Every structure is written in C-alpha cells, then in structure tokens.
Amino acid sequence: MNKIIMFTGGVETLSYFSEKMAEFFIRKGKAVFFYDLKSPGESSRRVRKFIKQGDTILITFNFQGLSMEDCLYNTSMSTYIWQEYNIPCINIAADHPYYYDKQLTFLPEKFILENYIHISIDRLHEKYFKEYYPEFKSGGFLPLAGSRLHGENELKKIIDRDIDILFPGNYTPPEICEKYAHMINEEYAEFYLGIIDDLLKHPYKTVEEAGVCHTLRELGEVAYDDMRKVLNKMIFIDLYVRNYYRGLVVGTLADAGLKVHVIGKDWEKLKCSHKENIIITQFSDSFTCMKAMENAKIVVNVMPWFKDGAHDRVFNAVLNGAVSVSDVSRFQQEEMPEGCGVTYYDLENISRLPQQVSNMLSDTDTLQRIADAGYEKAKRKHTWENRAEMLLDSFVNI
Fold first, then answer.
1. Inter-axis angle of helices 207-219 and 186-201, nearest 10
2. Residue 109 to residues 3, 65, 85, 106, 137, Cα–Cα distance (Å)
3. Which are the contacts of 170, defined by CB distance < 8 A and separation ≥ 6?
4. pLDDT above 60 for 321
5. Cβ pair 228, 132 in contact under 8 A
6. Which of 121, 154, 114 is nearest to 136 (CA)?
7. Which range has the worst mean pLDDT, 171-175, 279-283, 343-347?
8. Average pLDDT rounded to a whole number, residues 332-351
9. What per-residue confidence (pLDDT) applies to 220?
C-alpha cells in the first residue's frame, strides 16, 4: 500500500498523533491524504481523487471516518466510501472498547469481515475486545507513544527548568459524572454507586473488572452481547474515577504546600484547601502542553484507568526531558521501570506523594539521571515514529 488516508479537524490530540505518524510515512515514500472533518464536502471530493483501489489504506483513531459521518456514509445503502473502494481500515481505539459499542454495533457486517481492523492501546482492552466482540478482526496491541517538541540539543537541564510540578489534562468534578447514576431510578443508582465505591476502595481494579463482577452478582449469567451494552452504560463511572483521582492527586500536592501548574479546563472547580498553589493555564493544544513539559522538572500523570498499557503523557514528558511521576500500569512498568524516566506512586497511598515529590525536587542530580535514562529508552522505542513503523510493517506493506 503506497497511499494512506488519515484524519484531521476532529479531536486535537488525535490529529496531532496522526500528524506525527504521517511524518514517518512520508519519509518512507508513502503518499498521505489528510481528510479534514471540518470540511467534509471538499474533503470527500478530494479523497476520491486520491484513492487508488488496491493501493490505499485508512489509518484512524477512535472511529473517525467510521461514525456515519456525512459525505463518508451512504445512509440509503448503509455503506461507507471505504467499502466502495475496498479499502482496509485500521482503527486505533484510544479508549476502552466499551466506549465504542454503538460504532462497533453499527459497522456493516460485510465491512467488519473484509475491511475493519481494530487496534487496542492496552493489553486488557485487547483481551476484552476479543472476548466481547468475537465477530471482529483484532489487529492486536499498539500502545500510545510520545514525541519531543524540539531537538535533543535544545533540551534544558533539570536544574534550569522553571516549573517544579506540571499536570497537563482537563478536570471534571466527579459530582457531574455521578448524576448519570441517578438517571433511571434509585435501584440503578445504588448499583452504579456500588461499583464506584468498589473502584475507589480498590483502584488497582479496572472498570470492566468491577462492572462485570457486580453485574454477574446482580443478574447471574449474561450473554456477551448484552454485557457489552451494560458496560457501555458505565462510561460515566470511568470518567468519575479518573477525575476523582486527578483531583485528589493535584489537591493533595497543593494542600501540602507544593506549587502545581495545571494545563486544562475546569481546574478552578477543584475543591481543596490551598487553591492558591494551583497555577492554571487553560488547555489550548498539544504544542502548549509540550512547551510546558520542556520547562518542567516533574510531570505528574494519573492513568485513564488503563492497567496494562501506557499513556502519551508519560512518553511526552520523558521525551521532552522531564521526569514522569505516574501511577502504575503493568506495560508501562515493564517498558519504563522505576528510575528510567519514571518514578511511580501508589493510588492507595496518595498521602505519601507530596513527600515523594519533595524529595525528588531536592535532589536535581538524581532527577537528571532519571530523566536521561528515560529519554534514551523512549527515543529508541516509544515515539510515534516507532508506532508508525510497526503499523507499516504489520499492515501497510501488504
């Protein structure tokens, strides 16, 4: 395949991931067309001219181009333009499969069998996908990656960086998510709140692990196609738990007297005792986050409830010369062990985090050694160029 279709104009971070991968594809002699989701009419006309049947593949994130968009989906025929030209479609799902039950359910059957390849960014996501969507073709596991903003010669030393602690990411007050538990009746609310309580007490569990356990306890045997619909209704639980811990981590650091720079929306809504220690920059784009990472000593991460994958926030931090302080993920620990760009904290013992961070900030020599070790590893194995090469080898050169 010498022609690759990708997307821009949707979620900014997904466009950024695609652009970084496209740089590698182009260097390898592939022609890349970016379909602009903000200009569907013009893009659909241009993409038809770009496509060469038998020599074109689509690579997308989170079902962009596979969500019945105007100009791409023919409602009368129930088909996508990609079916018309028999184009293989690689979809990298950057969230858990239960987020996408609707998209997966409404993909045309013939398309599923012939053209759709589903990529998971977490090994537990892949396991879930294979179990609950057996009619689909799994393309396996491809973790998220990172990139650096400038060349390595331009990276500041830790001692020269102005930001001690940075957290890039939005915040949603958990009570906003909790209201979805009460949308049916109090019996359902009690069921959902029981799952949330389980996850807050046992943060090492995944949402699907707790959700399946509570559902089977409540209902007994459940068919896989029914279970995936049940879990799709629990997306708000995922958002509740990740935002609860985001707020707890940032608030705990701030209340301990540490200055925390956050980049994202709604942090002014965080309830803590010392909000004066939280310096807020509203989220604008990936460039803003990476620019801040270049000037940060420590970049704090709370995983989005992936327990066997990695997050781009960790790799971006390390590739831009900072040290990532993150909660635990099995794959992430395998690839970036303690002291290799990352130091880990325990979600069950967040009260210890301020002292852990303070100790790190007081020893810039050790911080620099951790940053240097991680940079070399991430540069070698965990850039979007690496991921693009993996896709090229597995799916594009066919």
1. 140
2. 25, 17, 16, 8, 12
3. 264, 265, 266, 283
4. yes
5. yes
6. 114
7. 279-283
8. 97
9. 86
259 in Cβ contact with 277 (< 8 Å): yes
The band of 140, judged by pLDDT with boundaries at 50, 70 and 90, is: very high
Token pair listed for 334: 């395998």
Question: What pTM does this model have?
Answer: 0.94
CA atoms within 13 A on the CB side of 248: 19
Q: Which residue has the tokens 């896709």?
A: 391
Q: Show the tokens assigned to 203.
A: 């943060």
pLDDT score, position 113 = 79
| Residue 398 predicted with pLDDT over 60 | no
Type of residue numbered 95: D
CA atoms within 13 A on the CB side of 83: 17
What number is the average pLDDT over the span 370-376?
A: 96
Query: What's the mean pLDDT in 317-328?
Result: 97
First to last CA, the chain: 6
